[in-house]
Amino acid sequence: GTSDPYVKFKLNGKTLYKSKVVYKNLNPVWDETVVLPVQTLDQKLWIKVYDRDLTSSDFMGSAFVALTELELNRTTEQVLKLEDPNSLEDDMGVIVLNLRIAAGLLLSCLILLNERCERWAHFTLGHLAVSFKCTIFLHLFIASKTSLNLGHVCVFMRSVRLSDALRKNQLWNGVVTITLLEGKNIPGGGLAEIFILLKLGNQRYKSKTLCKSANPQWREQFDFHYFSDRKDMLDIEVWRKDNKKHEELLGTCQVDITALPMKQTNCLELPLEKHPGSLLMLVAVAPCTGVSISDLCVCPLGDPSERQQIAQRYCIKNSFRDIRDVGFLQVKVLKAVDLLAADFAGKSDPFCVLELGNDSLQTHTVYKNLNPEWNKVFTFPIKDIHDVLEVTVFDEDGDKPPDFLGKVAIPLLSIRNGKQSCYTLKNKDLERASKGVIYLELDVLFNPVKASIRTFKPREKRFTEENRKFSKKILSRNVDRVKKITMAIWNTIQFLRSCFLWESTLKSMIAFVVFVVTVWSVELYMVPLALLVLFAYNFTLVTTGKVNNTQDAQASKELMGLDEDEDEDDKESEKKGLIDRIHMVQEIIIAVQSILEEIASFGERIKNTFNWTVPFLSVLACLVLAAATVILYFIPLRYIVLIWGINKFTKKLRNPYAIDNNELLDFLSRVPSDVQ
Asked: What residue ranges are annotated as transmembrane (predicted)?
C-alpha cells in the first residue's frame, strides 16, 4: 500500500536531474533545489515519475512542459496530467509544479511550490496486484540561457538529513509471532509432502517440508515485523510437492492482524478457502522497542541518562524479565572512503543497508560521491547475541537493480564499545577484499543471563531466500572439510591400534597403565570433569600463543580461495551446458553438498568450542560442565535418568503447544564453523 517515488527531469532524451527517493511514503517531500541549463526554448522538459524497488523501478507516468509556453522571469504554475501509453488506467493522476525560466545565468529568488498532486494508480506485477495512493510534492526551479552556448548545471541539495518519511516507514513497532502447529485433513496430504508459505507484506517464511500425512505437525515458530499504520493481511498458503518435485497449491487462508488483541496469544483454527482441511496455529502481537534512526547529535547512547536507563534494563537483576529482549545495539554509520566507481562518470550513488538477522534498516543515498558521509545512528533490539551485523554498500542505479559495492560482517560478540573502527569492504561471499573502507562506531549492551538462555533455544529462522544452487567450488570445499575430519578420526583409531599391537613398547606400556587405572577408578562425574580439563588445557595454549585460532580460518580460506582462472573455468563450463547435462541429478548433488557441509560444520563447531574460538560460548560450556560434574557427584545416575524421562513424557501434557528442540544442537549452532 506504499510507494518509493522519485522524479527524473529530461531534455532531448538526456536525464539532467534525478530527485532522491522518498521511501514508503504516500506524502513524499523532496525539499530539493535544482538549476538546469537550456540551450534553446524549442524543447520539451519531460517529467517522469518512478516507483523504486531494489530490483527494478516501476514507471508511474510522465508529462512534459513546452518551454516556449513559459514567460521570461515569471513563475508559472503548471498542472500536468501524468500519462502512460502502456497502462490500462485512464487517470494516472496529475503533478503540480511551479517553473521559472530566467535569461542568462540569472538565479532569481526561489519560490518553491507547496502544492500537491494526489493520484490513484494500479499496477499488476506478475501475480501481485498493488493499489496505492500517492501524494507528490515537487519543488523545482529552472534557470536557462537563451543563447546557443551551453550554460551550466547547478544542483543544490538543501538538506541531507534523513526525511521523516524514510525514517518512519522503516521502523516497525511490533512483532507478530506465529507458531505453526499442525494441519487437519489436508487434501492430498497423504499422497505428497506438505509445506506452508506465510506472507505478511514483503516478508515471507517457508516451513519445513513434512512427510506424507493428511494431519502434518510442524511445531515451528516465525517472527514478522509489524507496522501498526499498515493494514497488511497475513496470507497463508498450503503447498504439496510430489516425488517429481512438482509443486501444487492446495489451499489458502488469511488472518487480519489488526483485529487481534495486543500482548495476547490467540489460538486460531483456520479453514482453507474453497478446500477442505484447516490449520491450527498460535498468533501473538507484541509491541517492540529499540528500533530507531537518528542523526549523530541525538544518538540514544550519547545521552548519559538515556544510556543509564538502557543499561539498567539489561542489568543482572532484570535477567528474568522479558527473556526475549536480550540486548541493545547502536550503530553509527559515519562515512566510506575510496568506493568503487559504478557510474560511467567515475562516480557512485552509495547507500548502506544494515541487517541484523531479519531486521534491516537503510541510510539515505549520497549522490555522485566516492567518499560519502552519512553520519546516521541506527539502533536494533538484540534477540540473539550470536547474530552477525552485516553492513552492505550499494550504488543506487535508477531504474535498474542497485550495484553491489562492498560488504562487512561483524559478530556482535566481537564489538568493542565506543571505538570508531575502519572496516575493509569485501565481496558478496566475504572471501576477498573489495575496493574501499567504511567507518563505523558500534556499541552493544546485553544481559549475559538472557543471552545464555537464548543460546540453548532454536535460532531465529531467516526470511525465505533463493534456493541453493550447485557449485563445484562449494562441493569441493565441503569434501575437503569432511576429509580433514575423517583423517583426524582415522589417525586416532590408528594410534589406538598401534598401542594394541605393541609397535612401540614404551607407548603401549603407558597406554596399558592409563587404561587400567582409568577403568578401575573412573566415576561418571569424572567425564564432564575431564572435558573441563581439556578446556583448561586449550585455554592455556591459546593464552600463551602456542595455538592460534586463526590457523583453521586460514586453512579454510585456502579451501575457499579459487583463482580467477577457476572462476572462468566455471563460466566456460556453464556455457558448454554443464548445468543442462546434470539437470536430472542436480537435486541429489545439492543434497549431497548440503549433507557434507552439515557434517563438516558439526565437527568443526565441536573443535572450535574446545579451542575457545568464541570465549563467551566456551565459558558457558565450562559452567554447564562444572554444574554437571557437581550433579553427577552428589546425585545417583538413576535419579537423573528418571527425572529426564519424566520431563520428556510429560512435556506434551504440560504444554500441548510446546516446540521440541535439542539444547546441545542449538548450542552448537551458535559456534562458528571454520568457513564462517
From this structure: 92-113, 510-537, 616-644
What mean pLDDT is reported for the chain? 79
Query: Residue 519 gets which letter from DSSP?
Result: H
Residue 243 pLDDT level (bands cut at 50, 70, 90) = low
- β-sheet bridge partners, residue 205: 198
CA 347 vs CA 17, 52, 68, 408: distances in Å: 15, 20, 34, 21
Stretch 289-312: mean pLDDT: 88
How far, in Å, are 288, 458, 524 from residue 569 at the CA level? 49, 40, 56
Q: How far is CA 402 from CA 44, 57, 395, 398, in A?
A: 29, 11, 5, 8
- Residue 355 corresponds to which cell in the numbers above? 541487517
Query: pLDDT tier at 502 (50, 70, 90 boundaries)?
Result: confident
Give the separation between CA 418 and CA 414, rounded to whole angstroms. 13
pLDDT-wise least confident of 320-329, 342-351, 388-397, 609-618: 342-351
Q: Which residues pair with 199 in a beta bridge?
A: 204, 235
Q: What percent of the chain has pLDDT over 70?
A: 81
Q: Which domains does the chain have, with CATH numbers?
A: 5-101 (2.60.40.150), 174-287 (2.60.40.150), 292-447 (2.60.40.150), 472-544+580-669 (no CATH)
C-alpha cell at 672: 562458528
Identify which of 203, 216, 214 has the alpha carbon closest to the alpha carbon of residue 275. 214
Q: Poorest-confidence range of 73-87, 349-363, 580-594?
A: 580-594
The neighbour count for residue 421, using CB atoms within 10 Å, is: 15
Encode 264-275: b = buried (16+ Cβ within 10 Å), e = exposed: eeeeeebebeeb
The dihedral through the CA atoms of 639, 640, 641, 647 has a sign that is positive
The rounded distance, in Å, linking the Cα atoms of 471 and 568 is 13
Cα–Cα distance for residue pair 430/426, rounded to 1 Å? 5
CA distance 407 to 425: 5
Three-point CA angle 622, 626, 629, nearest 5°: 140
Question: Quick one: pLDDT band at residue 266, thresholds 50, 70, 90?
Answer: very high
Measured torsion, CA atoms of residues 360, 361, 366, 372, in degrees rounded to the nearest 10? -80
* SS3 assignment for 340-351: CCCCCCCCCCEE
DSSP 8-state symbol, 460: P
pTM exceeds 0.90? no
| Of the candidates 266, 267, 276, 195, the residue with the CA atom closest to the CA atom of residue 236 | 195
Kindly report the three-state secondary structure assignment for every residue of 569-622: HHHHHHHCCHHHHCHHHHHHHHHHHHHHHHHHHHHHHHHHHHCCCCHHHHHHHH
Cell 504444554 belongs to residue: 655
Q: What distances in angstroms separate CA 110 from CA 9, 32, 96, one per listed residue?
A: 18, 11, 16
- How far is residue 613's CA from residue 102's CA, in Å, rounded to a whole number? 67
- Cα–Cα–Cα angle for 403, 405, 408, nearest 5°? 130
- Mean predicted confidence (pLDDT) in 475-503: 85
Which residue type does 181 have?
L
Q: Helix (H, G, I), strand (E, B), or coil: what is residue 508?
A: helix
Tell me the pLDDT band of 468, cut-offs 50, 70 and 90.
Answer: low
Chain segment 123-168, per-residue pLDDT in tens = 322 332 222 233 333 333 333 222 223 233 333 332 333 444 455 5
Section 243-256 average pLDDT: 82
Instruction: Specify whether the CB–CB gap between 10 and 48 falls below 8 A.
Output: yes
Q: Is the pLDDT of residue 223 over 50?
A: yes
